[in-house]
């Protein structure tokens, strides 16, 4: 496989084989992207600064007083492994959700299951979404709560999560694992290398007129 | 693995190659763009010194932040104005067609694609919006993507994807009076769950689906994502072709229609196709259906009791308890009689001409309850114009509805149309998540357009079948 190159000389995507750091638990099933980043914070043209708005409505009341939420707790400042439950990230396709988490400091998300678009958006940022059984996840959440300073190690290639003396069998979806471990998650570069084949596919489709295919206009 | 389904065929026709990740590179036949999820993607493209690869296969509009009242530029909301200005600059610099408000073609991206004939059977269609699944109603493979993927499509005309499983959802029988496509999809999500479709594409089939017009099919495909399925589709048939004939793409070009029809026919699911899963739902048993909670899977027929969380599967109990507390509902009660403050008729699920006609037919001669703030937000400028030509705007206004300009509006509260405090809304939109309609204490009850109309009139959730003269259009 040829390594992807960008016209401006930017380096190809880095390999993400493991993520280590302290954990932060956010409990509950079906946590949707409207909760992760409320729509009113999406009235922006860059992703910069979204980190401070992660879980905003769960963290603050109408008078902007802090509510009980892990993202407000001092003990989790600096955490980079988010531990969630089932169907996390359901709802809207907004990449603002993983962007807000990433800019808050999250490098990996571990949970029972993830909504597909959310997991895809995470991958595009090099953030693994790692799944494990409900019991294992709940035990990990308990552990992180009791030991906020303890390290949690995610091995993406080997599909394990290690904390204390415990090793959890985890799952990283095949394509995601390959993309992260081999550093090929920058799909723009990957696909850009196949320009000729793209044009050929476009030409084979009866609904695509020649004048819509760059280079074929004549 | 599925074989011989529309999904398999459209996938194969658009597959460019297998990527080193194991994903397939798919050519994108139509890329729809709006103002909220695209600016960062255009920014990334510029950073890399790249240009839009297939501008003529790309189409933009403005819907999420656009005001539905005063639309004089600059918009009063500075953030909205800057997003609009950014989109204008991005599309005009790239040669992308733009259905802007001055064109008379502006509207919600999932309303304008089908009405302009941009959406066609056998296409791959993507947009940075999860409700892109709507376009599957035409037999297209259509799904929502994130902003980094928008960059991919802008730069290469392709997306990287893994093939998914196909579940056929067969809705048998005839729908009862007062029962609409919206009730069908709310029932499906209620039965299969909000994550039941993860890993699947939904093929909707059966008599009840075939009997629906394109608007109803769009409402159903639209909410595939609420059931966890990134895409949903209906095989194209005569109903599809009749719609297409009237669109800009073919109205003046019947030869082009005839030229493409064999392709559309060729991508229909084969009679002996194989599915990964098949689910059958009795359409004749579906009632007008509403949500009682804060996920679109927490639904009940209008005469059905709200479930006791203790009776639900263990993993659903906590969510249900929290939802019932937020909504202030009790297990054992029905949703009938639940008091509402706002009636919202709009969104990419239900703001097409047929939706407006049905609601107007119900509203005619009735009045909005004194305590209800009611609004109609047509899905597009064309829908609005067509409705006005039929006098529907007058019907709504006389009844006490606010008649507004098109956009996403109160579906997600990114403009001024928002719930205030703990207001409860009867909403024809697609999501009842906490905070979705602009207030974190707001309460959303999802339902069909005619149920919204009935709730607007009575001030509470109402079984439309019990009101006199239920008109069907």
TrEMBL record, chain A:
This protein's assembly is summarised as: Heterodimer of LeuC and LeuD.
User: One MF term in GO for this entry?
Assistant: 3-isopropylmalate dehydratase activity
Q: Which InterPro entries match?
A: 3-IsopropMal_deHydase_ssu (IPR004431), Aconitase/3IPM_dehydase_swvl (IPR015928), AconitaseA/IPMdHydase_ssu_swvl (IPR000573), IPMI_Swivel (IPR033940), LeuD (IPR050075)
| Catalytic activity as recorded in UniProt | (2R,3S)-3-isopropylmalate = (2S)-2-isopropylmalate
Q: Which organism is it from?
A: Halorubrum salipaludis
User: To which pathway does this protein belong?
Assistant: Amino-acid biosynthesis; L-leucine biosynthesis; L-leucine from 3-methyl-2-oxobutanoate: step 2/4
Q: Does the keyword Lipid biosynthesis apply?
A: no
Free-text function comment from the UniProt entry: Catalyzes the isomerization between 2-isopropylmalate and 3-isopropylmalate, via the formation of 2-isopropylmaleate.
Q: What class of enzyme is it?
A: lyase
State the Gene Ontology BP annotations.
L-leucine biosynthetic process
Q: Which Gene3D superfamilies match?
A: Aconitase, domain 4
A Gene Ontology term for the protein's cellular component: 3-isopropylmalate dehydratase complex
> Please, which domain of life does this record's source organism belong to?
Archaea
**A Pfam family recorded for this sequence:** Aconitase_C
Source taxonomy: Archaea, Methanobacteriati, Methanobacteriota, Stenosarchaea group, Halobacteria
EC number(s) given by UniProt = 4.2.1.33
**Protein name per the record:** 3-isopropylmalate dehydratase
Q: Report keywords, A-Z.
A: Amino-acid biosynthesis, Branched-chain amino acid biosynthesis, Leucine biosynthesis, Lyase
Family that this chain belongs to: Belongs to the LeuD family. LeuD type 2 subfamily.
**In this protein, which residues make up the domain named Aconitase A/isopropylmalate dehydratase small subunit swivel?**
14-133
Q: Does the keyword RNA-binding apply?
A: no
Q: Which CDD domains does this one have?
A: IPMI_Swivel
Q: Where is this region: Disordered?
A: 1-28
Automatic annotation (TrEMBL), chain B:
As to how many cofactors bind and how, the note says: Binds 1 [4Fe-4S] cluster per subunit.
The UniProt record gives the binding positions of [4Fe-4S] cluster as: 348, 408, 411
> For this UniProt entry, which residues form the secretion signal?
none
The answer to whether the entry has keyword Disulfide bond is no
A single Gene Ontology biological process assigned to it is: L-leucine biosynthetic process
Q: What class of enzyme is it?
A: lyase
- Cofactor(s) it depends on: [4Fe-4S] cluster
Q: Which GO terms describe its molecular function?
A: 3-isopropylmalate dehydratase activity; 4 iron, 4 sulfur cluster binding; metal ion binding
Compositionally biased tracts (Polar residues): 291-301
**Ranges of Acidic residues composition bias in the record:** 307-317
Under InterPro entries, the record lists: 3-IsopropMal_deHydase_lsu, Acnase/IPM_dHydase_lsu_aba_1/3, Acoase/IPM_deHydtase_lsu_aba, Aconitase_4Fe-4S_BS, Aconitase_4Fe-4S_dom, IPM_dehydratase_rel_enz, IPMI_cat
Region Disordered, annotated ranges = 288-318
Q: What does this protein do?
A: Catalyzes the isomerization between 2-isopropylmalate and 3-isopropylmalate, via the formation of 2-isopropylmaleate.
- Quaternary structure and interacting proteins, as annotated: Heterodimer of LeuC and LeuD.
Put simply, this protein is called 3-isopropylmalate dehydratase large subunit
């Amino acid at each position: 496989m040829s390594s992807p190159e960008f016209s401006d000389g930017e380096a190809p995507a880095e390999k993400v084989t493991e993520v280590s750091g302290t954990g932060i638990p956010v409990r509950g099933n079906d946590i949707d992207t409207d909760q992760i980043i409320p729509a009113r914070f999406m009235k922006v043209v860059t992703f910069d600064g979204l980190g401070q708005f992660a879980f905003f409505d769960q963290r603050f009341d109408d008078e902007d007083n802090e509510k009980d939420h892990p993202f407000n707790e001092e003990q989790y400042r600096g955490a980079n492994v988010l531990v969630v439950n089932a169907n996390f990230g359901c709802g809207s396709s907004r990449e603002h959700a993983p962007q807000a988490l990433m800019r808050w400091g999250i490098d990996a998300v571990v949970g029972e299951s993830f909504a597909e678009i959310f997991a895809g958006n995470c991958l595009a940022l090099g953030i693994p979404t790692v799944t494990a059984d409900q019991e294992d996840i709940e035990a990990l959440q308990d552990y992180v709560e009791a030991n906020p300073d303890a390290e949690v190690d995610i091995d993406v290639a080997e599909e394990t999560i290690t904390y204390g003396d415990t090793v959890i069998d985890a799952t990283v979806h095949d394509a995601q694992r390959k993309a992260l471990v081999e550093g090929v998650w920058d799909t723009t570069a990957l696909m850009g290398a196949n320009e000729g084949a793209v044009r050929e596919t476009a030409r084979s489709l009866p609904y695509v007129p020649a004048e819509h295919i760059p280079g074929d206009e004549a | 693995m599925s074989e011989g389904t529309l999904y398999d065929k459209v996938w194969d026709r658009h597959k460019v190659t297998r990527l080193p990740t194991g994903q397939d590179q798919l050519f994108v036949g139509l890329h729809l763009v709006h103002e909220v999820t695209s600016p960062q993607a255009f920014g990334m493209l510029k950073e890399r010194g790249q240009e839009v690869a297939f501008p003529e296969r790309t189409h933009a509009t403005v819907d999420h932040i656009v005001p539905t009242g005063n639309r004089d530029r600059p918009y009063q909301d500075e953030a909205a104005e800057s997003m609009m200005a950014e989109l204008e600059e991005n599309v005009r610099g790239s040669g992308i067609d733009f259905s802007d408000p001055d064109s008379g073609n502006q509207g919600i991206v999932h309303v304008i694609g089908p009405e302009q004939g941009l959406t066609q059977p056998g296409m791959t269609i993507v947009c940075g919006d999860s409700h892109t699944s709507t376009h599957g109603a035409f037999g297209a493979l259509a799904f929502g993507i994130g902003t980094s993927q928008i960059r991919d499509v802008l730069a290469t005309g392709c997306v990287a994807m893994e093939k998914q499983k196909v579940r056929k959802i067969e809705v048998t029988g005839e729908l009862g009076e007062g029962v609409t496509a919206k009730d069908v999809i709310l029932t499906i999500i209620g039965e299969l769950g909000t994550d039941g479709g993860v890993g699947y594409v939904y093929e909707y089939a059966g008599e009840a689906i075939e009997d629906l017009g394109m608007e109803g099919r769009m409402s159903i495909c639209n909410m595939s994502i609420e059931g966890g399925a990134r895409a949903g589709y209906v095989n194209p048939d005569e109903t599809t072709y009749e719609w297409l004939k009237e669109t800009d793409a073919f109205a003046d070009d019947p030869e082009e229609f005839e030229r493409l029809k064999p392709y559309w026919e060729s991508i229909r699911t084969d009679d002996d196709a194989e599915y990964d899963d098949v689910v059958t739902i009795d359409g004749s048993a579906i009632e007008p259906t509403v949500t009682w909670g804060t996920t679109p899977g927490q639904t009940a027929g209008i005469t059905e009791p709200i479930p006791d969380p203790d009776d639900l599967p263990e993993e659903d109990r906590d969510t249900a308890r929290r939802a019932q507390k937020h909504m202030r509902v009790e297990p054992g009660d029905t949703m009938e009689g639940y008091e509402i403050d706002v009636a919202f008729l709009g969104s990419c699920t239900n703001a097409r001409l047929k939706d407006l006609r049905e609601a107007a037919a119900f509203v005619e001669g009735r009045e909005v309850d004194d305590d209800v703030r009611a609004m109609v937000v047509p899905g597009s400028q064309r829908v609005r114009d067509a409705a006005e030509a039929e006098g529907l705007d007058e019907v709504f206004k006389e009844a006490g509805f606010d008649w507004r300009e098109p956009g996403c509006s109160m579906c997600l509260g990114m403009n001024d149309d928002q719930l205030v405090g703990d207001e409860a809304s009867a909403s024809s939109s697609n999501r009842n998540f906490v905070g979705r309609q602009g207030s974190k204490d707001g309460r959303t009850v999802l339902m069909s357009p005619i149920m919204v109309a009935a709730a607007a009139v009575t001030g509470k959730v109402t079984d439309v079948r019990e009101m006199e003269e239920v008109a069907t259009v």
